[in-house]
Design brief:
The chain is α/β, with parallel strands linked by helices and 293 residues long. 53% of the residues lie in helices and 12% in strands. It is built from 14 helices and 8 strands.
Length: 293
């Protein structure tokens, strides 16, 4: 976040009137530094520190200056997604790209639309006519609903109406069905601490292209058993390159990639969370047990 303010980059958490002003940007940097100092002081009071990813671990270690922290991945509902049956891509009516996530500003759905527009421009005709981007997510409030209206307007401006489908506040069964019919998963949030939606896409058998930052880069879309589990991108160009690579994979390579990705999400189950959470708390609970004895 400090880098965006320092570079005066306009973003959802760095308003345009601030990024355009050298004075306001400087004041915001001082504010964040002060807040980070107070945050670090609070962190030093913790007996046990748990973080949800390697990226968060490095972030907290830098701010808190704490000697250690335990990485405990959040529990993900992989069981239901692993149960999604895999259909041969050739048997699917569409080449569906699935985006899972609430319509919050930091999810950057607009980037996904820009990626789609560029991909449709360069992909083969036989692929273009089958491509659909499915947004599956909930609206928390009027702000999210306004954001969907703006996204629909962008769809029209980019002439993507025939290639985009919105599933707003869809039931879980609908999400699973969209994943079953899908081919690719896409994620575009910069520096997401973990990325449960990425895990869900991979568990459902979607070949996933996630943002090249944060938890997805550090912990989720990593090699597994000496093989790729997905792709990373940060700009429309890098996302499109990944999508074209996926299109050009053989059926055997796609199947192998999906299997590795599905196997890799065993790290994020409820059972693993329970075990790791308990192990992290053990030093805190041990003195109490001895006192009771």
């Amino acid at each position: 976040m400090l880098s965006r303010v320092r570079d005066r980059t306009c973003a959802h958490n760095n308003a345009g009137f601030v990024s355009r002003s050298r004075v306001l940007s400087s004041l915001k940097i001082y504010y964040y530094k002060l807040f980070a100092c107070l945050y670090g002081l609070a962190g030093h009071c913790c007996d046990v520190t748990m973080v949800n990813s390697s990226w968060t671990f490095n972030h907290i270690k830098q701010i808190w200056k704490c000697p250690t922290a335990e990485i405990v991945y959040p529990p993900c509902n992989v069981t239901n997604f692993l149960a999604v049956p895999l259909q041969p891509d050739a048997a699917k009516r569409e080449m569906s790209i699935v985006s899972i996530g609430q319509f919050r500003p930091e999810k950057d759905h607009t980037l996904q639309l820009r990626v789609l527009a560029e991909f449709l421009r360069v992909c083969p005709d036989t692929v273009r006519e089958r491509v659909k981007l499915h947004f599956v997510g909930s609206c928390r409030n009027a702000g999210d609903e306004a954001r969907v209206v703006a996204l629909r307007r962008t769809v029209e401006e980019l002439q993507l109406s025939q290639h985009v489908v919105f599933h707003l506040n869809a039931p879980f069964s609908e999400l699973l069905k969209v994943c079953e019919d899908g081919t690719i998963g896409i994620h575009s949030m910069w520096n997401e601490h973990f990325g449960i939606g990425v895990v869900e896409c991979m568990a459902a058998g979607l070949i996933t292209v996630a943002h090249d930052s944060g938890g997805p880069k550090a912990d989720i879309v990593v090699d597994w058993k000496a093989g790729r589990t997905g792709y990373l991108g940060s700009t429309p160009e890098t996302y499109v390159k990944a999508l074209l690579d996926i299109v050009n994979l053989t059926d055997a390579d796609r199947s192998a990639l999906r299997k590795r990705a599905r196997d890799s999400v065993c790290r994020f189950t409820d059972e693993v969370f329970d075990r790791e959470f308990g192990a992290a708390l053990e030093p805190l609970l041990r003195p109490r047990r001895h006192a009771q004895l």
